[in-house]
Amino acid sequence: MDVRTVCLGVLTLGDATGYEIRKMFEEGPFQYFTDAGFGSIYPALKKLHDEAYVTLREQAQDNRPDKKVYTITPAGRAAFTAALGKAPGLDKFRSDFLLAIFFEHFLPPGMIEETIEERARWYREKLEHMQSCDRAGWGAGPVFVNQFGQAIYGAAVKFLEENRDTLIESAADRYETEATK
Amino acid sequence: MDVRTVCLGVLTLGDATGYEIRKMFEEGPFQYFTDAGFGSIYPALKKLHDEAYVTLREQAQDNRPDKKVYTITPAGRAAFTAALGKAPGLDKFRSDFLLAIFFEHFLPPGMIEETIEERARWYREKLEHMQSCDRAGWGAGPVFVNQFGQAIYGAAVKFLEENRDTLIESAADRYETEATK
DNA sequence: ATATAAATATATCATCCCGATATATAACGA
DNA sequence: TCGTTATATATCGGGATGATATATTTATAT
Lengths: 181, 181
Prior knowledge:
Two copies of one chain form a homodimer. In chain A, a hairpin with a 7-residue loop joins β1 and β2. Chain A has helices at about 5-10, 20-25, 40-50, 75-85, 95-100, 110-130, 140-180; strands spanning about 55-60, 65-70, 90-95. By secondary structure, chain A is mainly α. A two-stranded antiparallel ribbon of chain A has the order 1-2. The longest helix of chain A has about 40 residues, at about 140-180.
């Protein structure tokens, strides 16, 4: 799904500026399964405007850059519906952390524990954030997505907590063996 | 982690051609947390060769393009170790499926069930593949990574199976309400 | 009181990545 | 026999990433 389509989706929830869309991806309910930076959002909005899928009104502000508030058009809604109608692409889980753990024997001794600890903390924080999200007024879709996220991130936290010691010990054993060799 | 670094990692496991590296990403133990197509692997190998991180020997074959077998150099190993020494970037889970479910009210009636069913099947297949992987001779790192994957994909399957009906019913209710309105 | 960071708001740019496409042949099954 | 899969390389356009630039206010910290 390209950034243009996701922007259209966000705009079906209400008018927004590029900056606000970015915040949705960073802090809002979208952050766990999609992402886009300014470098993709601004060009996307420009193109959506060219295609007449959105309109914009510039709002002057004191001592700040003008706000560009975007509104989705009926054509934009139709395009978004059409895009959703196609079978979604495959889910992707990408983890440099797991790559590092896979090649764990290339890591300096203390770093395995530190890395796992840090990642477990990160997953725990994200999980707590999802749990604390106010579900009042949310529709069935957003609730399902939020709970799916909790299931996944919860499983990650649980696994890291239950299996970290085994890996750390096995790495420690290897270092000992190498030292006495 | 860029494709060059991941290629170096694969090459620490043994010499390989670009085609074989691709297969590792597609079928091997890497497929659940990293990915790269030919369009990234071949340029990456070319650059690694320029940087003297790999050497290559061309193996002529009958009626086939020459095989280019790449071997990692000591400098390549050092570069890979240095790259792993840095704190890994954040894990990313990206899902067009969840985006579609989030905007579930834009989907045609039957498609919600079909979409969830298809995705549950996909997660189940991936999970079974991970479970069937031969762990004999694997080190602690690869085992940890494989089991982490199983925990995550298992949680996804479980969630989809347990919650699909609730979402489908709530969508059906909405269609009824809209019809009688 | 003053420095420093963070938030608001836009935008660009190089670099890299993804997916599609091209080329060529062997092997295998329908 | 005809289509598909596997082997093996490579390129190319469009798009995404991450860093950087600009400018001001507000909040936090020293």
